[in-house]
Amino acid sequence: MRRPVIAGNWKMNPPSLDEALSLAAAIEVAAVAASDVTTVICPPTIWLAEVARVATGATALGAQTMHFEERGAFTGETSPLMLAGLASFVILGHSERRQYDGETDEGVGRKVASAVAHGLRPIAAVGERAEERRAGETEAVIDRQVRAALAGLDRIGGSGLVVAYEPVWAIGTGDAASPADAQAVASQIRAILRELDADAADEVPIQYGGSVTDANALEFFGQPDIDGALVGGASLKPETFGAILRAGQAAIGGDGA
Ligand code: PEP
Fold it and tell me: Which of 169, 175, 216, 231 to mutate to test the pocket of ligand 1 (most atoms within 8 A of CB)?
């Protein structure tokens, strides 16, 4: 049985360090109780070091992006060397970065390989846009994005890879995919992983992301190929995020700590 990975993507929130520390402290308490779930919070990079002092054991830290190079003339960027030792996960290829920051399939592949080379667990985010779904292109988009994201990995086994399926139209809209549709794509992703590395495919947690709340989380976690969630808005509300963590715990039949 795969251990669920439930990650909160705080994006450019909350607006102050004090609020970030209170949020992290509250989530740490909830994470202690959901001991069979890997709980990850991804605060803004500028606060990773401070939040690390509050997220003291049960919560793992993640970055929201990084550059693939270790150093150089890349204004505003953060390198994997800077994250190593501070974060253990990094979200790569989030649709907002693809949309607003020109992130490409190929660039995501370089970042995933770089993250793994630096001991960071990549959360490789993939997902189709609304117009792609309407045009019946979901399967082709997922195939292209997943293969590109993994193109730089020699092997998947031992890489710590997590894949997040996030239909773009479901992010921040309140219009989550149906659990059956999300499972269909997760199963497609699992089949690609199996083709690339048959021994490792069953190790990789596949998350669903897109308007996950405490009301729908359990149904997603009950799907055979969905092992957690990437959560945006609801990860800023400690009670809701705590309930999502409890749903992850319940889905694998654990009582928690
Ligand atoms: C996200 O940003 O990755 C996300 C899934 O956001 P939300 O949960 O708010 O839809």
Answer: 231
Phi-psi region of 43 (alpha: psi -120 to 50; beta: other; left: phi over 0): beta
Amino acid, single-letter form, for residue 96? E
Q: What dihedral do alpha carbons 82, 201, 130, 230 form, nearest 10°?
A: -50
Tens digit of each residue's pLDDT (9 = 90 or more) over 169-194: 999 999 999 999 999 999 999 999 99
Q: Which residue minimizes the CA distance to atom 7 of ligand 1?
A: 232
Question: Which residues line ligand 1 at a C-beta cut-off of 6 Å?
Answer: 9, 166, 171-172, 209-212, 230-234
Q: pLDDT tens digit string along 38-62? A: 999 999 999 999 999 999 899 999 9
Catalytic-role residue among 28, 67, 94, 103: 94
Q: Is the pTM of this model over 0.90?
A: yes
Closest CA to 58 of 242, 216, 247: 242
CA nearest 187: which of 169, 159, 206, 171? 206
Task: For residues 124 and 87, give the distance between their C-alpha atoms in angstroms, rounded to a whole number.
Answer: 15
**Radius of gyration of the CA atoms of the chain, in A:** 17
Has 203 been annotated as catalytic?
no
Helical residues (DSSP H) of the chain, grouped into ranges:
17-33, 48-52, 80-83, 95-100, 105-117, 130-134, 138-150, 179-196, 217-221, 238-251
| Domains within the chain, CATH numbers bracketed | 5-251 (3.20.20.70)
Indicate if 94 belongs to the active site: yes
